[in-house]
Amino acid sequence: MLPYARQSVDASDVAAVTAAISEPYLTTGPAVTRFESDLAGWTGGHPAVAVTSGTAALHTAYAAAGVGPGQEVVTSPLTFVATAATAALLGARVVFADVDDATGCLDADAAAAAVTDRTSVMTAVDYAGLPADMDALRTVTDRAGALLMEDAAHSIGTVWRGRPVGSLADLTTLSFFATKNLTTAEGGAVVSTSPDLLARAARFRNHGLVRDPGEQREPDEGPWHQEVHSFGLNYRLPDVLCALGSSQLRRLAAFKARRAELSARYDAALADVAEVRTPARPADADVAWHLYPARVPADARRALFDHLRAAGIGVQVNYIPAHWHPVFADLGHRRGECPVAEQWYREEISLPLFVGVTDDDVDRVCDLVRGFFAG
């Protein structure tokens, strides 16, 4: 089976992990600081806080933003459910706004229409690696007095209008799950352009502990003293995994280039298949492609999915609209709220895209797609 995604781990990654596991610190050590510094090289110099997963990054970012009961978070439904679930877990009401038909990203007009005086955060999702129109969304959030957040689980390495992901929003979350553009096995990070938000994120990922005597309420207790002023969790990413992340970052440029080559090869090979809609490629984005999201007639998608799976091609569908999940239906959300995103879901099929895919693999997948529609 050719999977739709797979990590790329080589001897340099193994050597980095082996070296880290032999060091005195297995966690909260120098490899964490080094990885966070290395990440800043891809985010326009903006610092990062490493955490245990992309979901933990979302939870941490929302906590840093002060999201809680009585507030609303506007986001896209065309995403993995964690983008919305982590806000809901903090007590916020999630408001889903529709997506742009060309890109699958949060539509600025729909987002503006979803804003109320309770909106505290607007979270755009970089679908397949492509950002939303962040300038337009920034105009909306500035007018609303809300923070702009970017779920960039798909898009580390993407540059939009000359600015890298990590520099476009107040808070940016990254994921390093095994299928992502680089991996720490599990892992994620929060990036912020605000020192205050970053400090809150760093504290939240470590139980909320305050160790600086200058910030403590009872600093004379003793040199061992630490305090919790607001609740946090243990979302610390271990040194071993951070060492893997730093090693992977050294190859991220090559990963991005190979994914771009494969994506372009799919485009060329499917150009003559009338039933296939290939991904949009805006001129203002240098995209680090995470998915290859082809779109086909909705009434043919399931049969094509089964046809490719039967031939050993591990295609996937990204994503079930978040508001369709029963947990959000139980909160009052209904199908039909976001018709563009829902139609996108009915048509979307993700073809295999990772650095281990060969040109011959792409050609075989495309031949199978072409054969299916030729009947």
UniProtKB/TrEMBL annotation:
<comment type="similarity">
    <text>Belongs to the DegT/DnrJ/EryC1 family.</text>
</comment>
<dbReference type="InterPro" id="IPR015422">
    <property type="entry name" value="PyrdxlP-dep_Trfase_small"/>
</dbReference>
<dbReference type="InterPro" id="IPR000653">
    <property type="entry name" value="DegT/StrS_aminotransferase"/>
</dbReference>
<protein>
    <submittedName>
        <fullName>dTDP-4-amino-4,6-dideoxygalactose transaminase</fullName>
    </submittedName>
</protein>
<feature type="modified residue" description="N6-(pyridoxal phosphate)lysine">
    <location>
        <position position="180"/>
    </location>
</feature>
<dbReference type="GO" id="GO:0008483">
    <property type="term" value="F:transaminase activity"/>
</dbReference>
<keyword id="KW-0663">Pyridoxal phosphate</keyword>
<dbReference type="InterPro" id="IPR015421">
    <property type="entry name" value="PyrdxlP-dep_Trfase_major"/>
</dbReference>
<dbReference type="Pfam" id="PF01041">
    <property type="entry name" value="DegT_DnrJ_EryC1"/>
</dbReference>
<dbReference type="InterPro" id="IPR015424">
    <property type="entry name" value="PyrdxlP-dep_Trfase"/>
</dbReference>
<dbReference type="GO" id="GO:0000271">
    <property type="term" value="P:polysaccharide biosynthetic process"/>
</dbReference>
<feature type="active site" description="Proton acceptor">
    <location>
        <position position="180"/>
    </location>
</feature>
<dbReference type="GO" id="GO:0030170">
    <property type="term" value="F:pyridoxal phosphate binding"/>
</dbReference>
